[in-house]
Amino acid sequence: MAFRASVLTLYPEMFPGHLGFSLAGRALERGQWSLDTVQIRDFATDRHRTVDDTPAGGGAGMVLKADILARAIDSASENDTRPRLLMSPRGRPLTQERVRELAAGDGVIIVCGRFEGVDQRVIEARGLQEVSIGDYVLSGGEPAALIVLDAIIRILPGVMGNDLSGLHESFEGGLLEHPHYTRPQEWEGREIPAILTSGNHGAIDKWRHQEAVRLTRERRPDLLEKAGAAPGKSGSNFGKHDA
């Protein structure tokens, strides 16, 4: 069964966006995944198609109304077991592990918030899982939804020309990815590391692992700490690799 993505948004014209190009676009054309958008405003009942109101208790901004958003969610997910995600800066950070979990399922339903936020009652009543793509705030959930879908679609079976490509990237195995090089051998006085052209694949694997550990320790020591390998900790498995 093809992976099905449903996006609830006030701006359906923003989709598929960049997902209509390159690998994701070709996979969409082949039917390896599908996308449908739901216009939240279609479920408003007044003549102005109002979807938001002022925050209870006062404050700046506007809040998406629970009743309208609930009707939109129900229309997209009747008898549907796909996870319901709400793009939100207060959500749990998206990880590659979570991406793989989502890619292994039948699809996702993604709600794109706008304004100041979403009425908490609909989050609870409809089981929305809040997901964040980083510690910053966007004008709406649409760009974040595209990023989530991009991360998922590229690792669906058959989307990448070589499925092994997805197994040797940053965050797979808890490390950042090692450096890459290609021809020419020398460029502006800089050489490709000799080990990579040695033909010794065991030594190459060891070098790549060591470089991945080095970069992770320098740039994302938190990843090593999560894996029980504090930066600079002697005896850490992250510094070892059998050729």
Automatic annotation (TrEMBL):
GO biological process, one term: tRNA N1-guanine methylation
EC identifiers of the protein: 2.1.1.228
Positions of region (Disordered): 218-243
S-adenosyl-L-methionine found in the keyword field: yes
GO MF annotation, one: tRNA (guanine(37)-N1)-methyltransferase activity
Domain tRNA methyltransferase TRMD/TRM10-type: 4-226
GO cellular component terms given for this protein: cytosol
Function statement: Specifically methylates guanosine-37 in various tRNAs.
Family statement drawn from the similarity comment of this UniProt entry: Belongs to the RNA methyltransferase TrmD family.
Protein name according to UniProt: tRNA (guanine-N(1)-)-methyltransferase
Lineage: Bacteria, Pseudomonadati, Pseudomonadota, Alphaproteobacteria, Hyphomicrobiales
Gene name in the database record: trmD
